[in-house]
Recover the amino acids of this structure.
């Protein structure tokens, strides 16, 4: 696996850009339907959430396979989560709000779901900034602590999602279940058990 | 209720040409032209699977008088109409799923012929009537209305139908009738959204109006749009259109109309009373608790031209309907 690391990274990188590519093609060819801003905001937000969950998937994979190689791909997936979250925010500001900054501020303070989404994005910034090897060395043990705030980011993102639901909870509930399943591996006793297996 | 047909019956068998001819012969002279056109259009929509998108001169078109352009009535607006393809491919009809593309994908499973409506409650002529009998005495007319969804998007739609007041008078509500409530078809085997376990709406969907709201000239029952028979996804065969209220008040695919003395319970109000009031008049100064109602996106919008416009009180019909709410605190009775 080590031998192919670069190749695997390249493949993940290209695959991670596919959603963006699909969105751009749909936007340019005008196949997003009568409310394209809404469609783009929804799709980009959902991909941000998916990448957050993919990022959280690597630790369970490491624990289950007892192979730390998985962690090598975590940074890229985390950065893609941030990337799609930024696109999501940009789509919202530019296409949904039409760059009316006063209404953006109104939304952030008045609309709990937007407050939650915005907070999730803001909390991702330090994680993205300190994702480099150098920052990892500089921060030492604190780096791990800092990066555990991703759990808060995902929780806020899920809150952001579920607060927008008008009646059908199936989609956000699916994501919450996936998140909880991934979080089980963070329970110290379970983690210790999986690490201690012969 | 009417006899249910199994879903696997061929759609061509449901409204065959001969059935249409038979029905036409059974009908009286009055209104037969309009209804005959409706039925032939229905047959056509069934056989092709998709409604035609050509002009109103098409053979499948409804027979109706065009919208009265008198400025005070509110029956007509010269704002750009939302294209047929957008009206019929992007809307909420939770009986078929919560995504706005679901109704178009799944509504063809709904059997809309035969159709009957039960009239009950404080009314002199209760009973279950076929749609043909209900429509027979009425001429169809066009109304071009703005439709403002509670989700802050809007459309301009040319409906074809009849004033709700005309239909109400037909059944002679008693003096005790203070409210009128409506119920949508409940048929989980044809409506996949009604089978969803995680949906929090309790079916069947119900809506209601105060009697004076229902009798207002703007209140409308639509059986078609763009001069053609109502597509299933938009609430075939007959739906309510109340242009000064949020879209969810305009209940689709009506099977029951009940006249009551008490305020009827309505679906969204029951689900989230703090978010959806009984009145639900379009009001830019009363926000939905989770989002602003001050503006809307007029569809179709595009990325370069979002068409974000200010929302008007009563969706721009204040001149016609504000009097209905004189003296009421519209923040309290939202």
């Amino acid at each position: 696996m080590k031998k192919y690391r670069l190749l695997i990274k390249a493949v993940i990188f290209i695959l991670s850009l596919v959603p963006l590519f699909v969105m751009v093609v749909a936007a340019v060819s005008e196949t997003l339907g009568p409310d394209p801003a809404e469609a783009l905001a929804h799709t980009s937000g959902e991909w941000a959430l998916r990448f957050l969950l993919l990022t959280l998937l690597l630790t369970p994979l490491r624990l289950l396979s007892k192979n730390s190689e998985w962690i090598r791909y975590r940074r890229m997936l985390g950065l893609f989560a941030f990337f799609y979250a930024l696109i999501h925010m940009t789509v919202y500001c530019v296409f949904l709000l039409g760059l009316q900054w006063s209404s953006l501020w109104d939304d952030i303070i008045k609309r709990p779901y937007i407050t939650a989404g915005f907070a999730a994005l803001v909390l991702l910034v330090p994680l993205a900034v300190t994702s480099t090897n150098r920052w990892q060395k500089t921060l030492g043990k604190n780096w791990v602590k800092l990066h555990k705030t991703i759990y808060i980011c995902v929780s806020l993102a899920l809150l952001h999602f579920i607060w927008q639901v008008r009646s059908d909870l199936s989609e956000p509930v699916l994501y919450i279940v996936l998140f909880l399943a991934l979080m089980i591996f963070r329970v110290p006793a379970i983690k210790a058990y999986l690490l201690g297996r012969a | 209720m009417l006899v249910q047909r199994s879903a696997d019956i061929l759609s061509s068998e449901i409204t065959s040409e001969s059935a249409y001819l038979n029905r036409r012969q059974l009908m009286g002279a009055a209104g037969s032209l309009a209804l005959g056109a409706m039925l032939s259009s229905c047959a056509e929509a069934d056989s092709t699977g998709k409604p035609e998108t050509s002009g109103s001169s098409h053979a499948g078109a409804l027979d109706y008088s065009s919208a009265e352009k008198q400025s005070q009535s509110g029956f007509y607006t010269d704002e750009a109409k939302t294209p047929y393809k957008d009206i019929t491919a992007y809307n909420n009809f939770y009986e078929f799923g919560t995504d706005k593309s679901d109704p178009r994908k799944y509504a063809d499973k709904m059997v809309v012929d035969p159709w009957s409506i039960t009239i009950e409650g404080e009314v002199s002529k209760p009973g279950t009537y076929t749609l043909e009998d209900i429509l027979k005495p009425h001429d169809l007319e066009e109304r071009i209305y703005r439709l403002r969804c509670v989700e802050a998007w809007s459309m301009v739609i040319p409906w074809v139908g009849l004033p709700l007041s005309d239909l109400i008078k037909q059944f002679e509500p008693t003096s005790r009738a203070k409210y009128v409530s409506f119920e949508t078809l409940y048929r989980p085997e044809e409506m996949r959204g009604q089978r969803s376990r995680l949906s929090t709406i309790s079916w069947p969907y119900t809506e209601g109006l105060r009697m004076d709201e229902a009798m207002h000239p703007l209140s409308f029952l639509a059986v078609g749009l763009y001069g053609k028979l109502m597509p299933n996804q938009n609430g075939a065969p007959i739906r309510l259109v109340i242009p000064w209220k949020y879209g969810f008040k305009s209940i689709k695919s009506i099977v029951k109309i009940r006249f009551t003395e008490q305020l009827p319970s309505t679906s969204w109000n029951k689900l989230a009373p703090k978010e959806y009031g009984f009145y639900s008049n379009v009001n830019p100064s009363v926000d939905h608790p989770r989002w602003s109602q001050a503006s809307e996106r007029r569809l179709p919008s595009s990325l370069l031209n979002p068409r974000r416009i200010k929302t008007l009180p009563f969706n721009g019909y204040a001149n016609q309907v504000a009097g209905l709410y004189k003296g009421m605190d519209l923040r309290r009775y939202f």
Summary: The interface with chain A takes residues 82, 86, 89-90, 94, 97-98, 100-101, 151, 153, 193, 196, 198-201, 271, 287, 290-292, 297, 299-303, 306, 308 of chain B (CB under 8 Å). Residues 1-37, 39-60 of chain B have pLDDT under 50 and may be disordered. Residues 71-325 of chain B form a domain with the Sulfite Oxidase; Chain A, domain 2 fold (CATH 3.90.420.10). Chain B has one domain: 71-325.
